[in-house]
UniProtKB/TrEMBL annotation, chain A:
Keyword presence, Iron: yes
Name recorded for this polypeptide: Archaeal glutamate synthase [NADPH]
GO biological processes: glutamate biosynthetic process
Keywords: 4Fe-4S, Amino-acid biosynthesis, Flavoprotein, FMN, Glutamate biosynthesis, Iron, Iron-sulfur, Metal-binding, NADP, Oxidoreductase
Cofactor: FMN
Residues annotated as domain 4Fe-4S ferredoxin-type: 10-38, 39-68
Biological classification of the source: Archaea, Methanobacteriati, Methanobacteriota, Stenosarchaea group, Methanomicrobia
Top-level taxon of the source organism: Archaea
Binding site for [4Fe-4S] cluster 2: C29, C48, C51, C54
Swiss-Prot/TrEMBL catalytic activity: 2 L-glutamate + NADP(+) = L-glutamine + 2-oxoglutarate + NADPH + H(+)
Keyword Oxidoreductase in record: yes
From TrEMBL, chain B:
Residues annotated as domain Glutamine amidotransferase type-2: 2-350
Catalytic residues of the enzyme: C2 (for gatase activity)
Domain of life according to the entry: Archaea
One GO MF term attached to the UniProt entry: transferase activity
CDD domains on file: GlxB (cd01907)
Keyword terms: Glutamine amidotransferase, Transferase
Coiled coil: none
UniProt name for this protein: Glutamine amidotransferase family protein
Originating organism: Methanolobus mangrovi
Matching Pfam families: GATase_6 (PF13522)
Transferase in keyword set: yes
Length: 502, 350
């Protein structure tokens, strides 16, 4: 092999004095780092993905993982990653795949936004003692109230369109059965049912096991139309048309055949072991009018009883696109930023295409507001939301609610190793291998995810209370409560916020 | 912190401004000498069908020429004059206060059900955002705002408030916390017949402001209160909601209470909250809003600012302090404190 091998990324070692040879590391590593020979544990560090499964299972804390320092000649342009990608592609002639979100060192705008708090002139509100309202309705709202007066009484003529009622502005984004395991999906479904919110099914159909939680699901229709039939549409509390995804704007999806087991094939309605490749565009949507027709056909098919969302990736022209969607009869626009995670995406897309969610939300919100239709359509933000502060800032920038993805998987064990596309996830999440899937107990998984949602909800209440707000309506789009720290004027203008001190 | 007081005589019998001046001055601890103001309804009976447009001019050259031109394009100036003012040792005169009595040309505004009001609203917005050195601070019919940066007595003496007679009066003693004291920032804030006095801070200002701006209003006063006047104009005048419903939209019951209500009421409040979510106001506030038919006072949903109501025959008083009401009317019969978010309404009955 003329190119030879590339250096190791991680180095695993075992403290032999500590090790009790319980062999849990051997059993737990799905990537085959450990093997036993003559009663001795041998290590193949080259196979390690830093998924952390062995370390967290070792009863003796005997395993040590080190990220290997770069041992190439250092070079500012030709980083180790750049060189290795060239070597790997020279060898394979293929697109490089990657899992999870953007791994480039772009500055995180959320970290340069600071929130406000009350002092003296305005009392802060104590959420432990005062009501704090995070309830959020997602769906179409009327522009004005229509009514008739009937001797002092008001009789409503306005009838509300169907809305989803969320007890917290946090939802779980679309991760399909296939991309993730049934136990992972079941954990998420139980968690959203416990916390009064919703999860997306992804474009993989709905497995029978999820049926009991269907009132808390948003079913997705993507370009591959996998798993879509009328029964599926009727089960969801809402329907989402996925046009694009933050991790890979402009392209379709790809579920490798290895992950298409019997159950997945059945739920998705595709042959066993076949690659499930969604096309880049929907072949019935080539314009905004086509989208509007699809939105209306889906509503017609479900008796106008369900809100229809449209999800797009955050791209340069996102505001104008979202405004078009808002006028297409869609009830909510989902904007997915370029730090969003994925099971598998071409690395070049994941790391280079799209724009950050913070700027996208602000731009979309502003455009809809300028057109006087902001309150008539809901705006859901996703893609790289890591904590309750990110959520609070997203809402202050204009979102109604957020979808979280990676964070909910981390609550199930995921260590963001980025190898989801290989189907070997040692945490039982991004895999269909029964022995790995069994590592998740859906009850315990649900508990963890629900805890995360509850904890963040409490933190959002605290942040709101500190800012003197007791209802989420008053946080939404309230840029006054945000300031930019070390952001350039161009970005401050897009975000429509002032600098710190102003 | 600020002191507010309002009174309505429901039979429309008119009161001069002397007692409200005294009552407002009593609340000087709630002010800082940086702003005070009065509004009275029924003061211009001779021009009752004209819009009384009060303007602060920095000088009577370019800004006034421009305002004259704009007004003459969109209607007829029936009469105009400088608002009489009387120098006060404690008050520095910063602007020339001018009033126009104006009749818009109805046929110039098409496509609305209320062409005259819409015409004047648009003129106010455009003068305030485009004409440097001019600020319209009052624009209703048969009513007028008088305000400046100073203590209540000085402002009252400056405009000689006791010379005006009105059936509704509101007054405000300002302790500015979010912007410095300037004449435009003093209360009452007014648009058309809506006038607002406010004690508190509106923490939802960012959201409310965007909402009114997306509906054609422009916030130019550098302070949070003006948004209340615009919200009342939008919901009350343009959308036709009764005042108590506007108050409910601005300070609605909590979801927990709404959930427990009978079905029809639950549906009404849910629909109202979903429709007017961006108009919901948060933060500590006590507000009194006046229009030609009445006044309404209300506080935020957890009542972080005081509000007291007094009644005596046809008179209804709403204020930050009971003592202020008693100063105005030592004979006042009933005194009570409304619950959080509950509107107190005084309507003219003739
Ligand atoms: S899990 Fe830890 S203790 Fe067990 S065999 Fe591996 S290194 Fe040794
Ligand atoms: S889901 Fe599994 S494979 Fe994917 S990043 Fe997380 S731990 Fe790694």
């Amino acid at each position: 092999m003329s190119l030879g091998s590339v250096p190791l990324k991680y180095k695993i070692s075992i403290d032999r004095d500590q090790c009790m040879k319980c062999m849990r590391c051997v059993d737990n590593c799905s990537y085959g780092v450990y093997r036993i020979e003559d009663d001795k544990i041998l290590i193949d560090s080259r196979k390690c993905t830093a998924c952390h499964r062995c370390i967290s299972m070792c009863p003796r804390d005997a395993i040590n993982l080190q990220e290997k320092p770069v041992d190439y000649r250092s070079h500012p342009l030709w980083t180790a990653e750049a060189r290795e990608d060239v070597i790997n592609q020279a060898r394979s002639g293929k697109i490089i795949l990657a899992g999870m979100g953007n791994a480039r060192d772009y500055p995180v705008i959320f970290d340069r936004l600071v929130l406000d708090a009350c002092q003296v002139t305005n009392p802060s509100i104590d959420p432990l003692r005062e009501p704090m309202e995070l309830r959020t309705y997602i769906g179409k709202k009327p522009a004005k109230l229509e009514f008739t007066k009937n001797n002092g009484d008001i009789d409503l003529t306005t009838k509300l369109a169907p809305n989803l009622k969320l007890d917290t502005p946090i939802m779980i984004g679309h991760m399909s059965y296939g991309a993730i395991s049934l136990n992972a999906q079941l954990s998420l479904a139980k968690a959203v049912a416990k916390t009064g919110t919703f999860m997306g099914t992804g474009e993989g159909g709905m497995h029978e096991a999820i049926y009991p939680y269907q009132d808390h699901t948003i079913v997705q229709i993507a370009s591959g139309r996998f798993g879509v039939d009328i029964d599926y549409l009727e089960r969801g509390a809402a329907i989402e048309i996925k046009v694009g995804q933050g991790a890979k704007p402009g392209i379709g999806g790809h579920l490798p055949g290895e992950k298409v087991c019997a159950d997945v094939s059945c739920t998705r309605m595709i042959p066993l072991g076949s690659d499930a490749i969604s096309p880049a565009p929907h072949h019935d949507i080539y314009s905004i009018e086509d989208l509007a027709q699809l939105v209306r056909s889906l509503k017609e098919a479900t008796n106008w009883e369900k809100p229809v969302f449209v999800k797009i990736a955050a791209v340069h022209n996102v505001a104008a696109i979202a405004a078009g969607i808002a006028r297409s009869d869609a009830d909510a626009v989902v904007v997915d930023g370029f730090k969003g995670g994925t099971g598998a995406a071409p690395k070049v897309f994941r790391d280079n295409v799209g724009i950050p969610i913070e700027a996208a939300i602000a731009a979309v919100d502003e455009k809809l507001n300028d057109q006087g239709i902001r309150n008539e359509v809901s705006l859901i933000a996703s893609g790289g939301i890591r904590n309750s502060a990110d959520i609070t800032k997203s809402i202050a920038l204009g979102a109604d609610a957020v979808y979280i993805g990676t964070a909910s998987l981390i609550a199930l064990g995921c260590r963001v190793c980025g190898n989801c596309y290989r189907g070997l996830c040692p945490w039982g999440i991004a895999t269909q291998k029964p022995e790995l899937v069994n590592r998740i107990d859906p009850e315990i998984g649900a508990e963890h995810v629900a805890n995360l949602i509850k904890a963040w909800t409490l933190e959002i209440s605290e942040l709101m209370g500190a800012a003197g707000l007791n209802s989420i309506e008053s946080l939404r789009g309230n840029r006054e409560r945000l300031r930019g720290y070390m952001l350039d004027q161009g970005l401050l203008d897009v975000l429509k916020i002032e600098s710190v001190g102003a | 912190m600020c002191g507010i007081i309002g009174v309505i005589d429901r039979t429309m019998s008119r009161m001069d401004g002397s007692s409200i001046k005294e009552a407002l001055s009593l609340m000087d601890e709630r002010g800082s000498g940086e702003g005070a103001g009065y509004v009275a309804y029924g003061i211009y009976p001779d021009y009752a069908d004209c819009y009384a447009i009060h303007v602060f001019f920095d000088n009577l050259l370019e800004p006034k020429t421009m305002v004259d031109k704009i007004l003459q394009t969109w209607g007829r100036i029936v009469h105009q004059e400088e608002i009489p003012t009387y120098e006060q040792p404690g008050l520095k005169k910063e602007h020339i206060s001018w009033r126009y009595f104006f009749k818009p040309y109805t046929d110039l505004m098409v496509g609305t059900t209320n062409p005259d009001d819409d015409n004047v609203k648009r003129l106010v917005m455009s003068i305030n955002s485009d004409v440097k050195g001019a600020l319209v601070f009052s624009s209703g019919k048969n009513m007028g705002v008088f305000k400046a940066a100073g203590w209540p007595e000085d402002v009252a003496n400056f405009f000689r408030i006791e010379d005006y007679k009105g059936y509704i009066w509101l007054a405000h003693n300002r302790y500015p916390t979010n912007t410095s004291g300037w004449w435009g920032g003093a209360h009452p804030f007014n648009l058309l017949d809506w006038s607002v006095v406010h004690n508190g801070e509106i923490t939802s200002y960012g959201t409310n402001r965007r909402y009114v701006e997306s509906n054609g209003y422009q916030c130019t006063m550098l302070t949070d209160t003006e948004v209340v006047a615009y919200l009342f104009d939008l919901l009350g005048r343009q959308h036709g909601l009764p005042s108590e419903t506007v108050v409910t939209a601005l300070a609605p019951p909590f979801w927990d209470e709404i959930d427990e209500m009978p079905e029809k009421q639950e549906e009404f409040l849910r629909t109202l909250r979903l429709t007017y979510g961006p108009a919901l106001m948060n933060g500590p506030f006590a507000i009194v809003v006046a229009t030609k038919d009445g006044i309404v006072g209300f506080t935020d949903r957890i009542k972080l600012r005081p509000l007291v109501v007094g009644e005596n025959g046809s008179r209804l008083y709403i204020s930050s302090e009971e003592a202020a009401i008693r100063t105005m009317d030592p004979e006042v019969k009933t005194i009570y404190m409304p619950r959080a978010g509950e509107p107190v309404i005084g309507r003219v009955t003739v």
